[in-house]
Write a structure and sequence with these properties.
The chain has 20 helices and 16 strands. The chain is α/β, with parallel strands linked by helices and 577 residues long. Strands 9-8-7-13-14 form a five-stranded parallel sheet, sandwiched between helices.
Length: 577
């Protein structure tokens, strides 16, 4: 509906002969001011050059028409062409134009949601193909709390883009090579050579601890640095024993990653491997050196982007080891050429913002200019803990956090049989409700609350509706016919329907802006409005079967939309709590 109102205003502006401007339509901050509002009249009063100025007799100066006059002219024109979906149009100072949807339109929205069910909010089929790369864990390190935020953002974005009917490829880029691998292998051969590692109960945790142990030992003992460098050289040259150890331990990490993805309900369509892209980058290097901005400097190979205010990016160290840039360049090309995508989105922490600008510029300069986006996100920590670093050995493993929050739910709701659904839902919801540019201090107690801006609060609203519908079924009460929806005229009913009607617009906004935090905020507001409605409006009323039927239709529409918005976040919608 937002787009329809926007088109009405644009047509009114054109018919009035005003200067064409970009029309913005928003939701009013206060619901009593209508369903939609625009400040277009105020924009036009400042910019439109067509209108004749008026003489201000008191000041003896030339003054333009004020915004209220412009708003009045637009309002009159819109009212002459508006559809039945709009009940009235009003103007308020200093020049806002407010639009009120008709009761008939809102009542019909309930019918539409019940008919379309989880397809409500789906966009029109698009031709574009988008790849979303996210997660990107490193083998031989533990999957930590920061990786969880990445996964939740990436998975939600994939779900929303698919609902907006884009063709989406979910990709994961596994860091299975690099200095951290060599350090872990060195740690194993140095400190655990004679141990039977096959009997370890938690092999992934062991690798994380060995890596931290190796980093600490090398930093404290210069002789170990030489030993490590020697092992790294042997490994890069293909030493048989080290390569076998790498393959074996790499699989330990991959098995752990897969368990976590399964627990979280996350699936990928394609996997990329850093070890493969390193080979592709080295093969591509001679061609890259043909470009003037890519050159040798102090025995290293760099991309000189100073003239673009993007600094210097080292591609190859002086010891010959390839850095991330040399791998991401061929990877970007592979995505477009092999998967025929139109846009590439990469979800990586915000600290890599400059790096991705450098990569995108390099690709542009070598003639590969495509639609590429980096979505950054800020740090995550537990409330009261210091910033994580796997080098310091004080990371917060994802598995640990997932287990702890499920324990917390079990402790808080001892009678529940769905502690995993509630706990993991609370974890996802808590992290997603913050803008990606906001630091998160995760608070388990806050996350699992049944009141407030939490996942359990929204899940409870869904479960409550399911309980009412089940009770209605037991009592033999049925949903209404279409005509009975005309009975939905109570202020709280209409307010609830207004919120439901916004869902398609939320999907479109997130698909364009990638701001997935809008999903939990919408879910919270819809749950709030449902509870307000339920407190004021009796749903099951034997003495008024027609109104009961209409309200059953209404709450079923709420159930459908709540379940769908939770699904987009990867959160389950239980029937009972």
């Amino acid at each position: 509906m937002k787009q329809e109102i926007q088109k009405l205003i644009e047509k009114a502006i054109k018919d009035l002969g005003y200067e064409i401007v970009e029309v913005e339509v928003d939701y009013p901050k206060v619901e009593t001011f209508g369903d939609y509002t625009t400040n277009t009249a105020m924009v036009l009063s400042r910019l439109d050059s067509r209108r004749q100025p008026l003489v201000d007799a008191r000041r003896g100066k030339i003054a333009k028409k004020n915004p209220m006059e412009v708003a009045e002219s637009i309002k009159n024109k819109v009212e002459s062409i508006k559809q039945d979906k709009i009940e009235k149009v009003e103007i308020v100072k200093p020049g806002y134009i407010n639009f009120y949807l008709s009761k008939g339109y809102l009542q019909d929205k309930v019918r539409e949601i019940n008919e379309k069910e989880n397809k409500f909010g789906n966009g029109e089929k698009k031709q574009e193909k988008i790849m979303v790369e996210y997660s990107q864990p490193n083998t031989h390190k533990e999957f930590h709390i920061g990786h969880l935020r990445n996964v939740f953002i990436g998975n939600s974005l994939v779900n929303v883009l698919r609902k907006s009917t884009s063709d989406v490829v979910a990709a994961n880029y596994i860091g299975d090579t690099g200095t951290h691998i060599a350090k872990c292998l060195w740690g194993i051969t140095k400190f655990h050579k004679d141990e039977n590692l096959d009997v370890l109960e938690d092999k992934a945790e062991f690798l994380g601890k060995v890596y931290s142990e190796a980093v600490k030992a090398i930093s404290e003992n210069p002789e170990y640095e030489n030993e490590f460098k020697e092992l790294q050289r042997k490994f890069e040259k293909g030493d048989k024993e080290l390569v076998e150890l790498w393959g074996k331990t790499k699989q330990w990490s991959l098995d752990e990653f897969q368990k976590i993805y399964e627990e979280l309900g996350v699936k990928f369509d394609v996997y990329f491997w850093e070890s493969e892209e390193e080979k592709a980058g080295k093969k591509m290097l001679p061609k890259l050196l043909e470009y003037e901005f890519i050159k040798e400097s102090q025995e290293a190979i760099i991309a000189d982007l100073e003239k673009y205010n993007l600094g210097i990016l080292v591609l190859v160290r002086k010891d010959g080891s390839a850095l991330y840039g040399l791998k991401d360049i061929p990877l970007a090309i592979k995505k477009f050429e092999e998967y025929k995508i139109d846009e590439s989105i990469v979800v990586v922490d915000i600290r890599q913002g400059l790096y991705f600008k450098q990569i995108f510029k390099i690709l542009e300069l070598i003639g590969f200019k495509k639609e590429m986006q980096h979505i950054g996100y800020e740090f995550v920590s537990l409330r009261g803990s210091e910033t994580m670093s796997s080098r310091k050995g004080n990371i917060i493993p994802a598995k640990f956090l997932m287990e702890k929050i499920i324990e917390k739910v079990r402790e808080k709701f001892p009678k529940t049989e769905i502690e995993k659904e509630i706990g993991l839902g609370a974890l996802k919801f808590f992290m997603l409700k913050y803008s990606a540019q906001t630091n998160i201090e995760f608070d388990m107690d806050e996350a699992v609350c049944l009141d407030g801006a939490t996942g359990p609060y929204v899940q409870y609203a869904h479960a409550r509706i399911c309980s009412i519908l089940e009770k209605a079924k037991d009592l033999g009460l049925k949903s209404s016919e279409k005509e009975d929806l005309l009975l939905l005229t109570h202020e709280k009913e209409l307010s609830l329907i207004r919120e439901l009607s916004k869902f398609p617009q939320i999907i479109e906004e997130v698909a364009k802006s990638y701001e997935v935090h809008k999903l939990p905020y919408y879910a919270i507001k819809l749950a709030d409005k449902f509870h307000c409605f339920y407190n004021d409006c009796k749903v099951l009323d034997d003495e008024n079967p027609e109104l009961t039927g209409a309200r059953l239709n209404l709450i079923n529409a709420v159930r459908i939309v709540l379940a769908e918005v939770l699904r987009l976040m990867g959160v389950n919608s239980p029937n009972k709590m």
